[in-house]
Design a protein that fits this description.
CATH class of the largest domain in chain A: Alpha Beta
Strand content of chain A: 25-35%
Largest interface: A-B, 55 and 55 residues
Oligomer: homodimer
Order of helices and strands of chain A: HHHEEEEEHEHEEE
Number of domains of chain A: 2
Number of strands of chain A: 9
CATH superfamily of the largest domain in chain A: Chorismate lyase-like
CATH architecture of the largest domain in chain A: 3-Layer(aba) Sandwich
Strand order of the largest sheet of chain A: 3-4-5-8-7-6
Number of helices of chain A: 5
Structural class of chain A: alpha+beta
Largest sheet of chain A: 6 strands, antiparallel
CATH topology of the largest domain in chain A: Chorismate lyase
Distance between the termini of chain A: 41 Å
Radius of gyration of chain A: 22 Å
Chain lengths: ~230, ~230
DNA sequence: AAGTGGTCTAGACCACAAA
DNA sequence: TTGTGGTCTAGACCACTTT
């Protein structure tokens, strides 16, 4: 019992803490692998895994022969407090997020061009998501009826479908494609934006590890509220 | 001499070849770490690094206790043969790519809000990039005069500034922020698109490993020619 | 020459999944 | 119970960067 954490996670947590509290400040060079391994009393590989983790979190950078450095934060400030990236949209499940069901129907899988395998019937769920009373996105989701609990209801259709899915399936990966589009009728009214205003159209397919298509999602995001942020290395 | 490759890279190359030739087909389960280590005559850690590499390339997925699987390719087909993502824009340096210099001037660093450190003067380069005679993007770049060779000319301003930069600096990382915007005057004329058509606006800051700001980039991409594609795992 | 990250091994034990 | 991925060690040698 007690906590179920790995050694390298604990090391990573401590390094992250040092970065946040300024023990290791921006642009500063960290002690070497060897020194850290010594200090923490773990093997060098464990240090390297912890550092790799912080690199994937975009807090550190390293370069052969030079050392490991604390990454500088982006200086770009979009005036709005918009969401950071589509990957993080799911994290804003706070109390100010509302979901309104626009439509819920069943269709046969042979009516769509997507390969849902054995599944015969799909739910097609259209819903509007709001944040602080402001319409943010319109989502349209396709999901096999059998992948949701038999008790699935309209009420549940306003909550996280990912969580429902995960009760019976292990989610492996999602392919996403994002386009810049003009928001036209009838979407502009639902999103409460001027006709033709620019927005993001995101299409994604979610698969289980062994490649079964679990969910298809086609959504529109207000361009004035969302930004995509990412960091590229090397 | 001869090739300068690592063991795990060679293993990764062979695994990639097997995936491409169908020895390991889509959705198929690979042999276990142990079996592969045995077959290749290397340690298990080396196999794991090779597999990690292919996972980061989005060719494999794995799950504890279950196994490693070949990832399914995305089924989304944007009708156009547009560029895959901003990360790959630089790879299309084929013969059909043209760059036209729109303007080139020098300014003092104290005229901008960006922290270029010691640098006093910046080049501001505005250029238009075309692919197959079609205008694709408008770029505006800020870069310290000292970071480019003293021989820097207008002719060179139409080629890869990254390559020029790399002659004297090691590039560490770039922060990017992407917005969906309406293309307005005068950009719509340069890009040859209707007024108000949706497009991407991308702002990026490129840093060296030790956190010196090397380059700032603000670009507009035609929404009808570009898509952002990405794959999320777990 | 010294410092620091990159690769590699051989073997051990743990944790989750499926038979 | 068996298979398979996840973590961890201790030590060795290589390659790039800086002194």
């Amino acid at each position: 019992m007690t906590k179920r954490v790995t050694l390298f996670t604990e090391v990573a947590d401590e390094l992250r803490r040092r970065i946040q509290t300024g023990v290791y400040s921006e642009q500063m060079k960290l002690p070497s692998d060897y020194e850290l391994a010594d200090e923490f009393g773990v093997s060098r590989l464990t240090i390297r895994k912890a550092v790799d983790q912080l690199i994937s979190e975009q807090r550190l950078v390293k370069h052969r022969g030079k050392g490991t450095y604390v990454m500088r934060a982006p200086k770009l400030y979009s005036g709005h407090y918009g969401l950071t990236s589509f990957t993080e949209v799911g994290e804003h499940l706070g109390k100010d997020v509302q979901t309104k069901l626009l439509s819920l129907k069943k269709i046969k899988t042979d009516q769509v061009a997507l390969d849902f395998g054995e599944a015969r019937e799909l739910f097609v769920i259209q819903r509007l998501r709001q944040y602080n009373q402001t319409a943010m996105t319109i989502e349209e989701l396709w999901i096999p009826v059998d992948y949701l609990p038999p008790t699935f209801s309209e009420e549940q259709a306003t909550h996280s479908l990912f969580q429902l899915l995960e009760q019976s399936h292990v989610i492996g990966y999602s392919h996403q494609e994002i386009a810049a589009v003009n928001i036209e009728a009838p979407y502009h009214e639902l999103l409460n934006v001027p006709l033709h205003q620019a927005g993001f159209k995101m299409m994604s397919e979610t698969y289980s590890v062994d490649g079964a298509l679990l969910l298809y999602d086609c959504s529109y995001y207000r361009g004035d509220e969302y930004r995509i942020k990412q960091t590229l290395q090397r």
